[in-house]
Design brief:
The chain contains 8 helices and 10 strands. The protein has helices spanning 3-13, 32-45, 92-103, 120-125, 146-156, 190-197, 233-240, 256-271; strands at 49-56, 59-66, 79-84, 111-115, 163-170, 177-181, 208-209, 212-213, 218-219, 245-251. α2 runs parallel beside α3 (92-103). The longest helix is centred in the C-terminal third of the chain and has 16 residues, at 256-271. The two termini are 37 Å apart. The chain binds zinc ion. Residues 87, 90, 168 line the site of zinc ion (ZN). Zinc ion is lined by residues 87, 90, 168.
């Protein structure tokens, strides 16, 4: 085949927006009960423990914990926190958590906490908020919802983390982007995450995303959380639990499998520094 044909094929195979989302997410949904059963199975197979910290009806919120059998004796094992599924209309997050568990590829010696779904009822309802219509990801400053109160109580029982990753989706975005919170100016992983994700998903190159200045798909919010009336989970984490955090945003107007690949690639890029 001529190079022209290869170019045409590449163009046809390029990931395309679906243009399904108008006024909200209208794409594929998941059966969260099945996904969470598979999550628990994969976690058990690979030696994770499960800590249930909130139960409401048939649903529970739980954290998975992996402690390496032989932690490094020279360096303290890095402590990594990953959470997702706080918005019930963002199905790629719990699916990415499942894939990460099934692939079981983690940095050597790392201790990991993985919260695969912080709002299971939201997935049943296919909506962003919890059953009472409250956006849990705005409730971390003066928590009112039982879910966030329970999550914060659990967080207070954990050690400090070295790195926090929150996995999300954005139905309005033109491609992948991320927020970096890095108050101590540690070596940034943002550019590396963007480069890795660019191989599987378009990047949102807009200079303004969600009303914030962005560059190369990266938003570095230059604001003091104390000035904000409402806190997302990521704000609570950066104030109380870690000094380096990334919120990864997959574009939910692309096929679900692409978004799962995107979040998994982003997490792997953040975890494996090379
Ligand atoms: Zn979200």
């Amino acid at each position: 085949m001529s190079p022209d044909i290869f170019a045409t094929l590449r163009e046809i195979l390029r990931v395309q927006k679906l243009s399904k989302n108008h006024g909200g997410y209208h794409g594929e949904t998941i059966d969260i009960r099945t996904v969470l059963r598979e999550v628990e199975t994969a976690a058990q197979q690979h030696g994770w423990t499960s800590d249930i910290f909130y139960v409401a009806g048939e649903f529970k919120l739980f954290a998975l914990h992996y402690q390496p059998l032989s932690p490094s004796t020279t360096n303290r094992a890095p402590r990594i926190y990953i959470s997702t599924g706080i918005h019930g209309d963002e199905p790629a997050g719990p699916l990415a958590a499942l894939r990460l568990l099934q692939e079981n590829n983690w940095p050597e010696g790392a201790e990991i906490w993985l919260l695969p779904c912080l709002n299971p009822v939201g997935f049943i309802l296919n909506k962003r908020e919890n059953a009472d219509g409250i956006d849990l990801n705005r409730d971390y400053r003066n928590p009112q919802t039982p879910e966030v109160c329970a999550h914060i109580a659990w967080l207070k029982r954990q050690p400090q983390f070295d790195l926090c990753l929150c996995l999300h989706e954005d139905w309005e975005s033109h491609g992948f982007y991320l927020y970096e919170q890095n108050p101590d100016k540690k070596p940034s992983r943002a550019e590396k995450i963007i480069a890795r994700v660019a191989a599987v998903c378009p990047i949102d190159w807009s200079e303004n995303i969600e009303g914030r200045e962005a560059k190369g798909g990266i938003i570095r919010p230059n604001l003091d959380p104390q000035t904000r009336p409402q806190w997302a989970e990521a704000f609570y984490l950066i104030v109380n639990k870690a000094r380096l955090g990334y919120t990864l945003e997959a574009p939910s107007d692309f096929p679900l499998q692409t978004r799962v690949n995107t979040l998994v690639a982003g997490v792997n890029a953040a975890l494996f520094i090379c």
